[in-house]
UniProtKB/TrEMBL annotation:
Name the UniProt record assigns to this protein: Nonsense-mediated mRNA decay protein 5
Domain of life: Eukaryota
Amino acid sequence: MISSAELPLGTKQAASIYFKNRVRRSWSTGQRATEQHPPIGNNDRSVTRDNILGAIYAAPQAIKLQLTECLGVILKYDFPEKWPQFIVHIKELLHAQDAQKVYTGLMALLEVIKVYRFSTTKREIVDEIAKELFPQVQKIADDTVNSDDELAMRMAWVSFKAYYNSIQSGLPLAFQEPANLVAWGTSFIKMIEKPVSFDKDTVDEENAKEPVYKAKKWAIRSVNRLYGRYGNSALLPSSSTKQFGAFAKLFTVNFLPQILQVYLKQIEGYTTGRVWMSLRVRSLVAQLLSDCVKEKSAWKLLKPHVEGIVSHFIFPQLCFSESDQELWEDNPVEYVQKRVDPLDDFGSANLAASNLLIDLA
């Protein structure tokens, strides 16, 4: 039903929601199966594995997201033991000439990476995927960055998100090679610097949901993770110095000066109104600058720009704004809750600016 070209979208959406709930409740070993939610038979499991990638390819965007969530559940229980050919399928999709097939391959890649992103016992799976598939992913990302097409931006966004998730709890050996860092670093910089036109009078946080801004955010998150977790010698725990010390030196000497200049140019563009940054991106930029304060060679690069950063980037964010005034007058209780709610601290641009100011001091 989901893959049918004749059925209306509403019917497909209903089928996809039912299918997602069925998979989430009953794909595991059946321990949660009930009379209302009986276990899924082996034949149905096999048919699902054989057809789900094709269904993702044929589905509209909203349904793709439902199906990829199902795919993640299936991979959690079936990969690699019951679905060893899955990586072969992804490889075929990533090398396809059809952009929608490539996009399907990227979404499937992201799901399998997410299954093992925090695993410390099965890092070899992520390492092997990084070695075998990510060279092609980097080429896709580099090609799509130059396009303004919405699908291309979705592909760039998923590529960077897959990279970020692959370095969550470890840095694959393939990513530690100088040529790999240069290739991915170039793609990150091109995406961060990509000019995007916007209307100053209407732009708001809703714009952050557009694929181009999501691609920018995940490029910045990837750079921040590389530097904060593996590339900053001042932040490396002693137990990781032997493992990532050489990479940290490589990153600091060959990549950090360039990326810091890119971040500073983005700040300049934002403060002069030529670049729009979402709250989350402002937070991420401030976080990288905070990490630079703590490392000797990075601090030397950052120090000449501190006065401008404090005056034009930090100070305006900490000031009591017109929107703050409106909220205070309209609903002072909500204003106070907004200011002190610890759940709002994650990704908060104001908090990141405060922390940067403290680190500078």
